[in-house]
Protein 1
Amino acid sequence: MPYDGRLIAGATVLMAVVEAGSIARAAAALGLSPSGASRALQRLEARIGVRLVDRTTRALSLTDEGRRFYDQAGPLIEGIEEAALDVAGAVSAVRGRLRVNIDAFFSRAVLAARLPDFLARHPDLGVELVMRDRTGDLIADGFDLAIRFGDPPAGRLVARKLTETRVLTVAAPSYLAVHGVPRHPADLAHHACIDFYDAASGRPYPWEFRRGNEVLPVTPPARLMVSDSGTMAGVCVAGAGIAQFLELGTEDLIASGQVVPVLTDWSDELFPLYALMPSRHQRAARVRAFVDFVIEAIAARRA
């Protein structure tokens, strides 16, 4: 296939549409009219001979062929951009728009107070933090990366483990004063417990206790299940029952005595935190800067 500048131009528009999530937003980012961006996509599809994007009145999504094209052409388009930045002496410039799929609890508890400093460091960067209860399709949803607890999903995402945090079993002093302190995980059968909803499975997160090499799964008799970590913290502090928290982000509740860890000799379970990235984004300066910021925020929380 001979060189065709319109092919590269159309590929650039396709990349922008996937990144932005809509033709209108992509057109604005590229300095085009929406109709001009739409025509560029149509010319690209005509040049290749396959449909790359499914268009409906409510959303855009990549076809299978479109996803293959995006995955293969993306690094090449990004390479052209990086070459231009290198020549301009700004290969490590942190700028543009960064869209992050992020765990709401982690964002609120660990990052929120430090975000002003991050934005001040990178005045040419715009950040969108979108709280989701699952990873979803980062490319189709226009995300640069995701920050999620739990093992990474199977697929082609690049996963970088950022940290691990203990799973703690806690209760309010008011609850323990009335109902007593469990001494063994089996004792939870006689306590009120608070479950947390796992959006990926549609069921509560399983309770598992670890002590060295011992692993003891438990199904607690929960009367209450919530899907928001803030609500779970609030009802636990209010004395509704025993809950399992991640240690990272809940240190203040423990240090202030609002909740008390129990079954501490069975608290060897660790839960990982990952940065998940579409492969073509892993070298982008804005992504590297945000991942470094997250690691810095975690370290400061533990200092």
Note: The first strand starts at residue 53 and ends at 55.
Protein 2
Amino acid sequence: MLLFTLFVALSLNFFLPRLMPGDPARALLAKMDAIQPEQLESIRAAFGLDTKDPLALQYWHYLANTFSGNLGVSFSRFPMPVAQVMRIAVPWTLGLMGLCTIISFILGTLIGVFAAWRRETKLASFSVGFFSFVRSFPYFWLGLVFVYFFSFRLRVFPIGGAYSVDATRGSGSWWLSVLRHGALPALTICVTSMGAWMLTMRNNMINVLAEDYITVALAKGLPLRRIKSLYAAKNAILPSVTGFAMSLGFVVGGGLVTEMVFSYPGVGYMLFQAVNAKDYPLMQAIFLFIATAVLIANFLADIAIMFLDPRVRDGAK
């Protein structure tokens, strides 16, 4: 089923960009003063957009090139290959979005367990109200607020970018500038996404605590720490595992608006530029990368649930 879904995504990846209005060859021609209009058909042929070829033949060439690892040449960054363009942006997105997703999931889950286990305390009630309030903020709006106060007014963090251009790449000062430039985007992502994990875990935990086996465990006098971790939290986290896997899969797509707000050179901002430039090969590579990552993440989530939930293993037998 995973392979079939991947094939469908691969096919849609080919047809959808070609349904967009406009001519990328003419757009490229407008940027090159030295190219004559008579050479338009040659440009189309060089980029695999030759209208003389049937769409089925173009689709076959697309599949053959994709499975051979040839993702084509970027229109907007000609003559750079798409694979080289992707190698520039993917590490920034994985470093920022990946770490923020993992951190927000861990912190939100732990706070959710506490808020459910100690739900009658004032601190637990405050945490629920606070994260519900913060969760209602659009993340791009919160990012703009952080930029205004911490970058424009206080000048604690840079306004945008991923690193200082005057620092030597790979040096200690360069890594420090990477951390400073990534602090505000990371804070925005963690603050806005932590509330969802916290509320989801809290609600699941409360439902599990109402089960009969929790009552039996309490009646038997088992340690409260064991009941909270092995009996309640382990079962309550199962629905969140799938959501976490989906989030990790979409990490490779980057945070489009967040990266635009902070001028962060990630995959999301690159996708926005590719759509504006009608860069078919780059769009197809990014879409394929996202689809593959989501499918693999879901597959790994199924395996993780199989180990966490014995009922799944018993059903398989």
Note: The CA atoms of residues 88 and 266 lie 8 Å apart.
Protein 3
Amino acid sequence: MSEAKTATAQNELIPGTTKDVLVRVQNLKKYFPIRRGVLRRQVGAVQAVDGVSFEIRRGETLGLVGESGCGKSTTGRTILQLEKPTGGQVFFGDQELTNMSSSELRKARRHMQMIFQDPYASLNPRMTVGNIISEPLEIHNIGNAASRKERVQELLRLVGLNPYFINRYPHEFSGGQRQRIGIARALATNPSFIVADEPISALDVSIQAQVVNLLEDLKQELGLTYLFIAHDLSMVRYISDRVAVMYLGRIVEMGHRDEVYDHPLHPYTQALLSAIPIPDPDKEARRKRIILEGDVPSPANPPAACRFHTRCSYATDICREVDPEFRNFGTDSREHWVACHHAEKFND
């Protein structure tokens, strides 16, 4: 691997390539206030997302992985401005979303949609499938009643469902079918960018591969760009072009999918990958598992400097005192960024 190239600061925008960038996130922060007492005064804040920066290039899938509670879903929701950011900037093309008015944001959301995690909770049980999928068309004043019905039937075919199901209700469908309805709703306004927030975690294993293959087919057919949020590392490798690993509100490693999976440079990434089962009993028996000690620190009071040092077996004094810089150990075509003082130790 090449010698590391260092970003000037941990929270600065990670340099991209000359390829077209659709979504650019710079130093994004989302803090949730902690209030106590009769007057509900703020006594602290949960630092759910703390200085996250990355780019998503047009037509690619960026996988965002990490433990539960690390800030993955909050990152996705804040990018779409479903949660108002505490700080930082989000650019969609040449538009800065964080400074938009409500009316401007509504127009921009036509081109950005979200697939939610729970297909049971995200569909209104009192609405028919036709009304659920056509709702975005009505909100954005797209077409008339006849053209909307035609569009809904087209979308149902696109996601592999019977177009004559438009008058049925969500309770008449299985979990996998409900998620397909959620995908059809996300596609209704013909968006270019979709945040898929753990879209398969609530589904049976036998259905997960079908939904992921559908998302991949739709990406190729419609030219979509995804932020794919998940904790299933094997599935993320399958669908993603690049991968970002998140820990306690910050990205600790990011790069080309094969670089991150085959040559992990951050101890946290190594621990996550060691937990993926290998379908070969002999290899599984020989490989070394990395067991992280202790619990994930509270995001309301995260450790100083490197946030992973309380659970890292390689931690030294510098890890407890200095925030690690984000350095590139890859190449221009296969970038590999990591925030670790001791990354050279793993860069063989």
Note: The chain is about 30% helix and 25% strand.
